[in-house]
Amino acid sequence: MTDAANKPQMKSAGITPSATVGPYFKYGLTPAGVYPVRDAFSPTVATPDAQGDRIRITGRVLDGDGKPVSDSMIEIWQADAAGRYAHPRDGGAKPNASFKGFGRGDTNADGRYAFETIKPGSVAGPGGKQQAPHIVVAVFARGMPKHLYTRIYFAEDAANHAGDPVLMLVPTDRRNTIVAKRGIDGAYVFDIRIQGGDETVFFDL
Amino acid sequence: MTLIYPRSSTTVHPASDYAPYRSTAKRHPQKPLVVIPHTMSELTGPLYGHDVVRSTEFDLTAQHKGEPIGERIIVTGRVLDEDGRPQPGTLVEIWQANACGRYVHVVDQHPAPLDPNFTGAGRAVTDADGRYRFITIKPGAYPWGNHPNAWRPNHIHFSLFGSSFLSRIVTQMYFPGDPLFPYDPIFQSVTDARDRERMIARFDLDVTKPDWALGYQFDIVLRGRNATPTEEPHDD
After folding, report:
1. How far is CA B79 from CA A16, B53, B149, B159, in A?
2. Residue B36 confidence (pLDDT) above 70
3. Is B174 noted as a catalytic residue in this protein?
4. Is the pLDDT of residue B213 over 60?
5. Which of B27, B82, B97 sits opposite A141 (nearest CB)?
6. CA–CA separation, A44 vs B223, rounded Å?
7. CB–CB of B47 and A196 under 8 A?
8. Which of A49, A72, B188, B230 could form a disulfide with A107 if both were Cys (CB 3.0 to 4.6 A apart)?
9. Whether B103 is catalytic
10. How far is CA B127 from the centre of its chain?
């Protein structure tokens, strides 16, 4: 064996390309007691010491035919109730001791997911403007070669939405697709329509 | 150091609608994605590492009473940003089929045997040099319903977080010289051959452990590069 045969291949510059999670991710990423694998993450974001309003967000992931997407993984990332992210880049962040702000869940046969978390506070935005409270969402699924990013806003913050530096970039007639409203049981409803006339707004980041 | 995440770097990814991969047809947005600035919400992200991983989870051959059937392999590599800087303390999650090409997942009905000694899920955290290491079994190829006589090349699924929610990625690692590459629409959905190369591990005799297991190297490059130091801080 020559040294040359052992050298790393010269690979072109660039990031590693994305690939679908495929249909079989659940036992690895969202075992949730169904598989003999320990859960690293869960859809319960609110920890016992987290301050703020406890909320539940639930919805269905639907494809272009309106059929439930039962093999989707949803991840959420959010600030705490005071608008602080558990990340060094958010300089002033002093998050609640155990509140990480990250949740992961999957969809069931009905395409439904649910998260238990706290209502985030407003956070800094471009140009020194505050952003209305929101949660960042990543959607993964079989049939998605790369994940989609969207955001969850909250209906009761409508007064702040008109001037929100991100929502302002969303066509007016589509903003309602990313504003969660409380259902009769008090949970926020946020359906994710991947394709179609009432398609959810997804972001190019 | 402040990282920026140029959008131009993401052009290596497959299109959301890639007709040869049939499941994309009803699962891609048809309206234009809305371009928004990278705000604090995107420039931050979950930083998980040692706190969620147990030291035994890197070895997928040691999760049951007996050893799994199949070809034992070592898979290692470095997680890097776009400037080639190592990303220490980053969580790497993997899942894969067993040596027969069968997943533990309840939906997988491929008539190949399950292995009672193999689940196929692992986790590791990168060290100070950005390196991770797994011991596992080489996954088998398996058929799928995309088109007549469709088979997936041998692959291991990888999931990584990196420095922000923008560096989040799920990808698949392939093995060198797989004869199924030309026929696999998931592999081919990355349309540039040089970009596809970055999804293929390379055999490495130095990683190979004598009389025990072949070794493969698979480096992963995540979004994120240093903002030019002389510039004023970017408006987040």
Report:
1. 10, 17, 35, 12
2. yes
3. no
4. yes
5. B27
6. 28
7. no
8. A72
9. yes
10. 17
The nearest alpha carbon in chain A to B32 belongs to A202
pLDDT for A98: 78
| Mean pLDDT of all residues in A97-102 | 85
Nearest Cα to Cα of residue A166 among A191, A117, A192, A203 = A203
Confidence class for position B227, pLDDT limits 50, 70, 90: confident
Q: Please state the pTM of the whole predicted model.
A: 0.95
Name every residue whose Cβ is closer than 8 Å to that of residue A121 and which is 6 or more positions away in sequence. A52, A79, A80, A81, A82, A83, A84, A133
Name the residue with tokens 């030291």.
Answer: B55
Predicted local distance difference test score (pLDDT) of residue A93: 58
What's the length of chain A?
205
* A9 with B202: Cβ contact below 8 A: yes
Pick the more confident residue, A4 or A184: A184
Token readout for A160 is 């702040």
For CA atoms B81, B85, B90, B96, the dihedral sign is positive
* B132 noted as active-site residue: no
The number of residues making up chain B comes to 236
- 3-state DSSP helix/strand/coil percent for chain B, to nearest 5? 10, 25, 60
Pairing state between β B121-125 and B150-152 = unpaired
Nearest residue in chain A measured CA to CA from B20: A143
A9: pLDDT strictly greater than 50: no
